[in-house]
Amino acid sequence: MTTLRRFCCNDLLRFTSVNLDHLTETFNMSFYMTYLARWPDYFHVAEAPGNRIMGYIMGKVEGQGESWHGHVTAVSVSPEYRRQQLAKKLMNLLEDISDKVDKAYFVDLFVRASNTTAIKMYEKLDYIIYRRVLRYYSGEEDGLDMRKALSRDVDKKSIIPLKRPVTPDELEYD
Amino acid sequence: MASTSNLLMLQLLTFLQVLCGNGGEKLLLLAEGLLKKHIASHSLHEPEAIMVYISILEQQAKYGDALEVLTGKLGSLLTVEVDRLRIQGRLLARAGDFADAANIFQKILELRPDDWEGFLHYLGCLLEDDSNWCTEQSVDSIHPLRKVLCKISPLADELFDSRISIASAFIQRLQEDSNNKLLRGPFLANLEIERRKHMHGKGDDEKFLGVLTDYYVRFGHLACFPSDVGMFLEVLAPDKKTELLEKLKDITPSTSTISTKALGQSITLLKLQVLSGNMFHLPVSELERCVVQMAQIYCENLPLSKDLDPQESMHGEELLSLICNLLVELFWRTQKCGYIIEAILVLEWGLTIRRSVWQYKILLLHLYSYLGALSPAFEWYKLLDVKNILVETVSHHMLPQMLVSPLWVDLSNLLKDYLKFMDDHFRESAELTFVAYRHRNYSKVIEFVQFKERLQHSSQYLVARVEEEVLQLKQHAHSLEEEEVTLENLKSGIPLAELSKEIPSKPLKFNEDFESRPWWTPTSEKNYLLGPYEGIFYCPKENLNQNLEVGVRRNVERRSLLPRLLYLSIQSVSTSIKENFEISQSDLKISTELKLLLESYAKKLDSTFEDAVELVTAVSNGLSSYKDFGHNLVDWFSFAVFLSAWNFCSAELGGKDADGYQSRTWHIVDSLMKKYISEAVASLESVIFSPYDNSMRTLVQVVSEPLAWHGLILQACVRSSLPSGKRKKKTGSAAELFSSPIFVAVRDSTQSLCTTLEVLLEWLKGLVNQSEESKLEAILSSIRNNGKNDGPGQVFHTLENLTSSMSSTEVGHRITEALKSWNTVDVARKLVTGKHVMLNEFIKICESKFKSLQKLKQQISQV
């Protein structure tokens, strides 16, 4: 029982129960507002009956040529609404917009190499580990760049895993 | 073309921004005209431009025109079908075409069967109920109503029945079509349909219970079940609620069945008992038994979390929050402090097992705050990692108690961080709005402007701005010279005094997330535990901010006058003495302004100036009680202090006779302080269990504010009296002055404050010097039940006993190690230390005041 709609500024004042969770980062205002200002279709919130915020997803679309892709910046679900595949629903929405509206080639995301729970979840959603990014998180922990090909990438070239790890400065977009 | 388009959008957005604040049909008409002209010459090419156009038409109630745009060529620019359908359904419903609107919402549900809002709109349109469309504007989008907006359908019985049948059949189809076992929407929809039937006088309790039970069987194990069905329980009469709970109990698997689903259902059942109010009808002994049972369920199910990643929520985690809430209820009923201690232990214990449960941290910080152990409360607050926008929504958990605490350094950091966040955002906002504009996301442009306005009108922001300045004054109040520099930096209090005048007409916004507050303190202004048991446990939290507004407004209006009142008081006594009580032009100006501010201050205490003078005089004489000051005792004391400074210079409360009538108001201040502090000291016996808010908080405030202000005024008197190279008395010798009744009053008042502070300091030091062991023993013995089956301690001992026998193979290495590290005495010590930190800070404040008054006494005696 989920109403999915575009995230709006007032939701920043209502997502406390999601963001107090230690797994969710609370970014600075310009970060959220830049996403809202530039990619409002990639920032969605899920609401439950009683207008409770269940979770949200924020992302963007970027790149050039065959690197044109949707990117998941953050996806968070309140503890009260976990284990209901809400993250999947939100991810599917972003993938759908990347695929159908923006005609992107793939969707990607970054995850801490140690976050096995999240990695497993993304794998279940058909994301594959495309490459390892060395010391991506604060220069300490490696990140995994995971990808899922969209319909425009007919030959699924975008998800052929890279054999060697890369460093953060080798990333095309960050 | 691009530049024409940009210019047009800029103009439209400007109009709409103006409208956000004021409203104005003409501007909308103008905006519509401009757009039409533009469309005729250039058409529109961006989805956001279409949205703006539709919005302009909608705001003028031109729903037909808007629909024409939406369903025409331009509407095809909106590529997300569900979004387009939502707008179409809304426009049709607003136009009163409910039948077509219902069809559109039905389409949304066919695409997204779990869309709850879509369903509510569908049902509302079928039943021709326009509640959703008429009242939308009046609902605060930050604190939306938990219940569904609806009213009794205007349809005749037969038509109502037929529409309900249509809805039921459609929902049935959605249920059958879906293979997704997690799809709750169509099943909850049955409950909403039954609720509407109830509203229409066609309810069937048995059927309602049946549907609720079915929903429980299907989704009862989910953590969100209680919040899903909360509003539906309200339909049932108390006996029906009990019947429902019995029914659910019968179908809930035994708690000894270890499975996540069984555990989930058991927890849901317990939460429903709380939600339905049934729990609070239980006698104390039964309630205790119930809480012990919860602890048993928690322990028995610990093995379920054996292999979980430490980052993941543990199964049954919510039980400890429920236990805490009920233990606090038991404390409120019985006044046995052991229950509060037990609640603290249970939560600390839970956090030892998993460090990152924010719900425990919030409960704990309120429990520690209640007992006056503000430093551990603040530690837990810091571990919540409240930053960026969360400072606006979460600070209310900590800021209010810090504002009245002696922990000034922590308070200062809290206020600075908060103000920095807000001011940074206000600075960046224009640039971000421009980014939205540049990317042609016009709806976001308006949203950003409205959002900035909302934050600018934040009540918390207003309070923080005022309190940050007052705190600076408090921090430097031991020295007149330092205070004068501070006052100079604060522009002699003029900006805040002007702000005070603007506050009554300022719209105030409450952005706090009160949902996360514990039941016993639903807002920062309210704490049920400070009053007698009222027989309630579940407190509805709707519209709390409405009740808050008057109090907050008044308080901040009053507080914003403090810097100016202090400045004028210091000035008034200084110039009076310098001029040797000859009233000069500057005196007159100061005195007039001071009087006006005092009148205004009295008004904000809901009194007239004359009545206020009478009241402070009567209380100081013992003719009235401190209780007559109500909750604003500290403000009344401050009033008395500034009143005496004003009278010192103006002598308006009586002529300057041989008795020195001017100085009589000084006795009022001395007597108020002396009597209040000695009475408070005598009444506060047990420091460990006494709630901070009852007396200690007022003591801290009295010393940090009115007493400090009075001390500064005395310093100003003495400084002006002392001959110096720069200052020369115009008339009269120093000896004459020092033997005058006024100077005698200064001397007496200084002496009186010293004596009062001495009494307080002695008492505070006595509290701190009591043996730590005896305090620990007091805490630990409060939960020692010595084998009895009642009273505080049973729950915690159940947790300890049941887990002590659990092996690593049962609950896993991590939980075993965590349990090993637990030490009850350490938590008790944390509480004792926490109270000591607060007391020691308070002692420091008292000592600094005492020292400066001693110095003053010395100066006086050397004359």
List the topology elements.
The complex is a heterodimer of chains A (174) and B (863).
Chain A: E1 3-6, H1 16-19, H2 29-38, E2 43-48, E3 52-62, E4 69-77, H3 86-101, E5 106-112, H4 116-124, E6 128-137, E7 141-149
Chain B: H1 2-21, H2 25-42, H3 47-59, H4 63-71, H5 81-94, H6 98-111, H7 116-126, H8 131-134, H9 157-177, H10 185-199, H11 205-219, H12 225-233, H13 238-251, H14 260-275, H15 284-300, H16 318-334, H17 337-353, H18 358-371, H19 374-383, H20 390-394, H21 399-403, H22 408-438, H23 442-456, H24 459-475, H25 480-489, H26 494-502, H27 544-559, H28 562-578, H29 585-603, H30 609-621, H31 633-650, H32 661-683, H33 696-721, H34 734-738, H35 741-769, H36 772-781, H37 794-804, H38 808-811, H39 813-820, H40 824-861
Poorly predicted residue ranges of chain A: none
Please, what is the average pLDDT of chain B? 88
Shape of chain A: globular
Largest chain interface and its two residue counts?
A-B, 52 and 64 residues
Question: What's the β-strand tally of chain B?
Answer: 0
SS-based class of chain A: alpha+beta
Low-confidence stretches of chain B: 655-660, 725-731
In CATH, the architecture of chain A is 3-Layer(aba) Sandwich
Q: Into how many domains do the coordinates of chain A divide?
A: 1
Strand content of chain B: under 5%
Rg of chain A, rounded, reads 16 Å
Distance between the termini of chain A: 35 Å
